[in-house]
Specification:
4 helices; elongated; alpha+beta; 13% strand; 192 residues; 4-stranded antiparallel β-sheet
Length: 192
């Protein structure tokens, strides 16, 4: 965070500034929640439509993120408590992001392993048919699990993803409820 002075005349107000790299699916929640911690969108900074090359070098996931710019009055009351609540909010959003990612991680891993195993059986089938003399019976014996290993991953992925979705959804909703409570506490601190 850096501080900048707007002007030095009467009615002088000093601000602190914050840049936040936010995944695109969470932009709305940040824009709605950060005012509960005393932040407002910085009117002096435009939010770029696309990530710049410099952001890409700092963060390889910048193609899926956007930088938001906020400012807050430096003399805001309850600043320490608001900062603590803001950190709790940030941590809840990170947990939601991790839970969303976990929906597909296990399904993708298992599906890829089954597909690779199917490819191994198919390679054995090809080697069996190209051997001298060709072993047709071995080729058929290896081709059947090979084809199954190529077809099964799609259905396996969908099933595992749906199961994980059902398991993770209540946890995500619980985190959103926690965010609501945190923002409500922050809002109450600002308008006390």
């Amino acid at each position: 965070m850096t501080a900048q002075n707007m002007n030095s005349g009467p009615g002088y107000m000093s601000y602190e500034y914050r840049e936040v790299m936010v995944p695109k699916e969470f932009i709305s929640i940040y824009m709605d929640s950060y005012p509960c911690f005393g932040w407002e969108a910085d009117p002096n900074r435009q939010v770029p439509e696309n990530s710049s090359g410099a952001e890409w070098e700092k963060n390889p996931n910048a193609h899926n993120s956007q930088t938001l710019y906020f400012r807050r009055n430096r003399s805001i009351s309850n600043k320490a408590e608001l900062t603590r609540l803001q950190r709790n909010f940030d941590s809840c959003v990170k947990e939601i992001e991790t839970l969303n990612r976990s929906k597909t991680t296990a399904a993708l891993t298992v599906s890829l392993l089954v597909g690779i195993l199917g490819t191994g059986f198919m390679a054995g089938s090809v080697f069996a048919v190209t051997a001298e003399p060709p072993m047709i019976w071995l080729m058929i014996l290896l081709a059947v699990p090979g084809f199954i290993g190529w077809i099964l991953p799609y259905f396996l992925y969908r099933t595992l993803e749906d199961r994980k979705e059902a398991e993770v959804h209540p946890l995500i909703e619980q985190k959103y409820d926690e965010i609501y409570v945190i923002c409500e506490k922050g809002n109450n601190l600002i308008y006390m």
